[in-house]
Every structure is written in structure tokens, then in C-alpha cells.
Amino acid sequence: MEIELKNPDQLGLMRRAGLVVCAALEAMRETVKPGISTAELDELAEEVIRSHGAVPSFKGYHGFPATICASVNEQVVHTIPSGKQVLAEGDLISIDCGAILDGWHGDAAITVGVGEIRPELQAMADAAEEALWAGIAAAARGVRSGKGRLTDISYAIESSIRKAPRKYGIVRGYGGHGIGTQMHQDPHINNHGRPGRGPSLVPGMALAIEPMITFGSPRTVELSDGWTVVTIDRQPAAHTEHSVAFYEDGVVVLTAQDGGKHRLGELAHPILY
Fold first, then answer.
1. How many CB atoms lie within 10 A of CB 30?
2. How far apart are CA 76 and CA 72, in angstroms?
3. pTM summary value
4. At what angle do helices 8-31 and 38-51 cross, to 10 degrees?
5. CA–CA gap between residue 21 and residue 23 (Å, rounded)
6. Hey, which bits of 3-62 come out as E strands?
């Protein structure tokens, strides 16, 4: 396993890429409504990314034909946007987006309700978001203490999900990853597991932390298009993600507008970009 470590200047360049992803996701969040197709969201994302002088990470990646992954309801991840997939009131959509700026990658995902959604679906989306920030906080505590290990993040994510009032499935086989000069790098980050294992969390690391949970069975299957992953019981899923940079005194959430300060408090690195 080779983990790419970055110097502060390189992490600063990653912050710029992360803010492009943040802008694209916020534009799509505001645009999601009944009657919008996932292809229209894809067009918007590419327009925002290119307007910032960046290029989409996903487009052309192993042949992927689009700028975003737009996964609706039972679709968990990697769904190709389509003009035929039109959002309806009550749907839940997970949007995954990446951008490259000056050779550095940013990657993040959000789950958004379409119009008015069932409270239990909103609760699942909220649980995925809480698990994401639990994982990020564990990473920040680990790098500050000098004692953190990779699976501390996995354990924090799983523990957060298990504390939710309802039982959710934790998707296996997919998870977070290193990020930097490539979108996917070592190490892989499971969303479950015991703490205290794997590589040490050290300054210069950058990780994309990425919980995925389901309303029912955690089992998934890949469809015949070679990309779309759906829940085996066709129950809905939620997916959240942020790219995070590690410093001695905390982390910067590269794909959050405020760098994670609001959610992390003193665990957020004090440098302002």
C-alpha cells in the first residue's frame, strides 16, 4: 500500500479543487425538484466545474460517460445520469461529483430529497450525514493525538449508524479512499470495523470519507450497464462524502465551504483558505 502524502501547498491546491466540487453540488442541491432529469443535473455540474477552470473527474474515468453519478431511491452509487430518469415528488437522490483543478482532485457526495419526502427517508439521509461527520471527527482526533489509525474512521462511522433510532444496512464492498493526484488512491476505507487497525493517520494525508447506508438489506448488485449499483431488496439508500486534508492540529474538509469549522469546532485546522 502506497499512501500519497502532500505538503501544505499541495493541500492548498486540493482545497481549491474541493471548493469547485462544493459549488457544483450546491448548484445541484438548489436545482433538485420534481420534473428535473438527472441528465439536466449532469449538464449543470459540468457547466459549474468548467466555469471554474476545472474539469470533471468522473467523465471518461474507466469509460464513465458523465460528470456526476446520480443515484435515485434504490440506486446506491455509480448511476449514469439519463434524460429518461426524471425526478418525482418523494424521491431521494444521491449525487456524487468530482473535479480536477491544476492536477488535484476533489470528490464529495450529497443525498437530497425531491420535494416533500417521507420523514423516515429524511431520517436515513440525516443518519448518513451524521455518520460522515463522525468519521471526519475521528480522523481529526486521530491526527491531532498522533495515535489515530485508519479503522478508527470506520469504527466511528459504524458506531454513528448503529446509534440511529432505526436499523440501517451498511453497504459492504464500497467505501472511502485516498485522494490527491488521482481520484482513487490507497487506502480503502470501510464504513465498518474495529478501531486501532491499518495505517497511522498522519499530516499530509488526504482521504475521501464516504458512508453508504440502506433502508433495508445492506446487500447490493451491479446492473448490466456495468456501473449502477442497487440494493438487492430495492429499498432506498443514502450516500454522503467529503474530501478531508490532515494537518498536525486538525483537518480541513476540502469540499465544505467553511472547511468543516461549523461541525468540527476546534478539530478544524485554523488555516483559512
1. 10
2. 8
3. 0.97
4. 140
5. 5
6. 55-56
